[in-house]
């Protein structure tokens, strides 16, 4: 038993060291690789998606059904919005629709494309409501799916900046932000602000509260990119219509700056 404990501790320490090493490499190399209007974004993000595919072969990621990165959601070409969730949900339906095989949701291939689940359809409807006709893309703080966040913790370990998988996702997302040059990044989940702000070097600009005093959004900024951390769009505690409208208006104001 003591030998097992020693081995487990050694693996944890090695994982944390790898996470710190990757975080040190997160700074994007100088150079203008932003995709201009009319250019094919897939050409710029394909190398990143291929790197994520290879990385997804880590043993502790093989239990995850799919990863999500740079998934287009339509809209008119122009200023872009990048919507970032915590990590993709995962259901038995996902495994059934791919006959037990692992999959992806990206600009290159979306396993939901021809047969979207009810929860996925509801999510996409919220994307269009809050983002309007802006050219919109989806990504995740952690790319790989799980039924619940607790399942993700069991699969990949503590969800902090020392986790090598989170460091990898941060590096990929920062490159995606550089490519898309979005007018706004929307993070769905206001309670995640502190941990995400630390990793992405965000400075708080302002907060907005709902009528009941709960946070509606936190506005942050990093490297001249605005971020909005919003109340979760499909959270179990409800989202009053008038507060949804306030959040939508806030997003519209930032996009016109």
Gyration radius (Cα, Å) is 18 Å
Number of helices: 8
Low-pLDDT segments: 1-14, 23-31
Beta percentage is: 15-25%
Task: Give an overview of the whole structure.
With 257 residues, the chain is of the alpha/beta class. It is built from 8 helices and 9 strands. It has helices spanning 2-24, 41-55, 92-97, 118-131, 149-156, 164-180, 193-200, 241-255, and strands at 66-69, 71-72, 76-85, 103-106, 134-140, 184-188, 203-209, 215-222, 225-230. A hairpin with a 5-residue loop joins strand 7 (203-209) and strand 8.
Give the tags.
257 residues; alpha/beta; two-stranded parallel sheet; 8 helices; globular; disordered N terminus
Task: Please write out the topology.
Blueprint: H1 2-24, H2 41-55, E1 66-69, E2 71-72, E3 76-85, H3 92-97, E4 103-106, H4 118-131, E5 134-140, H5 149-156, H6 164-180, E6 184-188, H7 193-200, E7 203-209, E8 215-222, E9 225-230, H8 241-255
Parallel strand pairs: 1-4, 3-5, 3-6, 6-9
Antiparallel strand pairs: 2-5, 7-8, 8-9
Helix pairs in contact: 1-6, 2-6
How would you summarize this macromolecular structure in one to three sentences?
By secondary structure, this protein is an alpha/beta fold. Helix content is 41%, strand content 21%.
